[in-house]
Design goal:
It is a single chain. This protein is of the alpha+beta class. It has helices spanning 4-16, 243-253, 268-278, 349-371, 390-396, 459-465; strands spanning 23-25, 51-54, 58-63, 79-85, 94-96, 110-112, 114-118, 131-136, 142-145, 153-155, 163-168, 181-190, 196-206, 227-233, 257-261, 284-286, 295-298, 302-306, 321-328, 331-339, 376-382, 407-410, 412-413, 435-439, 444-451, 480-486. The strands form five sheets. Strands 1-22-24-21-20-19-18 form a seven-stranded mixed β-sheet, with no helix packed on it. β2 (51-54) and β3 (58-63) form a beta hairpin. It starts with a helix and ends with a strand.
Length: 488
């Protein structure tokens, strides 16, 4: 039986669906009426910076380091530390000095009970990548745990002057935190020798820990005049090994167009066969390059197929972008599935390659629209924005008819208030927003936008949608679902 609390959440979710804007943050996924912050890399819901707050489930914090160069926080040449004194006792945990300031000279070191390090030192003593988490006993004994053990998320994933993060108080490694009471948080950045580059101190009162529960949520109905698009990274052709999770998600979402990534080392015939078996005979596949892993599938008529949406890379690898012009209930739509260059940091070779790829796709779109000026545009997939934001900016630049930029969707997890699209508990990197969808807001209006993560939903919600709690374990990327209707 659904509790009164879950019923209220359910009604709130229904009322939140359909938010829009130039940069659209979908309200379809907030699990609690009193959720304090949406962790999506957009900082408009914070009143200032270098501050922390908490509710009965999460600790939230935001900070603006002044260390230069500005770098993606998990691939930086310095380490960012989130230091938590959970018992207000400098004599317990690991003693770590405060930054040297006149007011801190006579102060005892902070007794750190939980330490989260972004770009931590590696085994060679140099700055590495990712996120490390360490718990300290009262005697200072250290136990290394993964970021998933404290439910840690930090966005944006790309280089920024401000970040936001949250810690899950229900996560198994968070038992070091009090069930209620004040904690002190120091966020600082240090060089490889441990010298302080920047520091800020926050104090936050934790309200009583609420009872653990999953979220009640529902997928929104698809409007009659909408085209529903799903972007899906299938993790090295995982549907061929275990079709069940992908079939159930496909049936629950009921998309009209699927933008696929990571059909790696798989033939066109095998992908088409999988679609016929699990989606139906009315689906058509566009997969111009078997080596790229990107593809488009649709149950709507394809007006034009494009063999190349992006020139091949200079190292001989296939270009990971494909495009098709599709006749949809929302009008003609140029859809592009992309998988930009992986890895690196801001201004790295990989980042420069992503920028070049984004510009190439942008030029392709501009050329196609000369012949189809009334067509809408949707570009979705794995953008791999782990360096700078410039690839996204280059892609959307001036592609609307009046010279404006394409709009950027900000889908939120259904049943949660997180915008992370990539989750891998075993990875050294904490969850991030790697996947994006952009569209022409002058032609199309976004009615719904959400991420689907079955792990956060309660049993009743999963049963109603025909899903299982483990379905999202099948890929490290969450499906993005967007509904577009004709612009008014």
């Amino acid at each position: 039986m659904i509790s009164i609390r879950h019923l209220i959440v359910y009604l709130l979710l229904l009322g939140a669906l359909g938010c829009g804007g130039e940069t659209m943050r979908a309200g379809a996924g907030q699990p609690h009426a009193d959720a304090l912050h949406v962790i999506d890399g957009e900082l408009g819901d914070w009143d200032g910076t270098d501050t922390a707050t908490a509710d009965g489930r999460y600790i939230y914090l935001t900070f603006s380091p002044d260390t230069r160069p500005v770098q993606a926080i998990q691939a930086a040449p310095y380490t960012t530390r989130i230091r938590i004194d959970a018992d207000a006792d400098p004599a317990t945990g690991r003693p770590i000095d405060y930054a040297i300031r006149p007011e801190a000279i006579a102060r005892r070191p902070q007794g750190v009970d939980l330490l989260i390090e972004l770009s931590p030192l590696n085994e060679r003593g140099s700055v590495g990548i990712g996120a490390g988490v360490t718990r300290y006993g009262a005697d200072g004994e250290a136990v290394s745990i993964g970021h998933a053990q404290v439910g840690f998320t930090c966005l944006p994933t790309y280089a920024s002057q401000q970040y936001e993060a949250r810690i899950d108080r229900h996560a198994p490694g968070s038992t070091v935190l009090p069930g209620e009471g004040h904690i002190e948080i120091v966020v600082d950045q240090v060089d490889p020798q441990g010298r302080s580059l920047w520091s800020t101190t926050m104090s936050v009162r934790l309200p009583a820990l609420e009872e653990a529960s999953k979220a009640a949520a529902v997928l929104p109905d698809k409007p009659a005049d909408a085209v529903r698009i799903m972007s899906a990274n299938v993790l090295f052709s995982a549907p061929l090994q275990d079709a069940g999770p992908f079939r159930r998600v496909l049936e629950a979402v009921d998309p009209d167009v699927i933008l696929y990534q990571e059909w790696f080392r798989t033939t066109r015939a095998d992908v088409a066969g999988w679609l016929r078996e699990h989606a139906g005979a009315d689906w058509t596949l566009h997969m111009p390059d078997e080596g790229s892993g990107v593809a488009i599938a649709t149950n709507r008529p394809i007006i034009a197929r494009y063999e190349r949406a992006l020139p091949p890379s200079g190292d001989g690898r296939p270009a990971r972008a494909c495009a098709a012009l599709i006749d949809t209930r929302a009008g003609e739509l140029l859809v592009i599935s992309v998988h930009l260059k992986c890895c690196g940091s801001a201004d790295s070779e990989e980042d420069i390659a992503r920028i070049a790829q984004a510009r190439g796709i942008r030029d392709f779109v501009a050329d196609v629209r000369k012949r189809h000026p009334g067509a809408g545009v949707v570009i979705g997939g794995d953008y791999n924005l782990v360096g700078s934001r410039r690839p996204l900016e280059a892609l959307i630049d001036g592609l609307v008819g009046d010279g404006d930029d394409l709009s950027v969707a900000l889908p939120i997890v259904l049943g949660d208030h997180s915008g992370a699209t990539w989750v891998d508990d075993k990875s050294r990197f904490s969850p991030g927003r790697l996947d994006w969808v952009v569209y022409d807001g002058s032609v199309s209006r976004m009615e719904h936008a959400l991420l689907l993560d079955t792990r956060v939903l309660d049993a009743g919600s999963l049963e109603a949608m025909g899903l299982r709690a483990t379905d999202s374990d099948a890929s490290d990327h969450l499906p993005i679902v967007v509904d577009l209707v004709p612009a008014e």
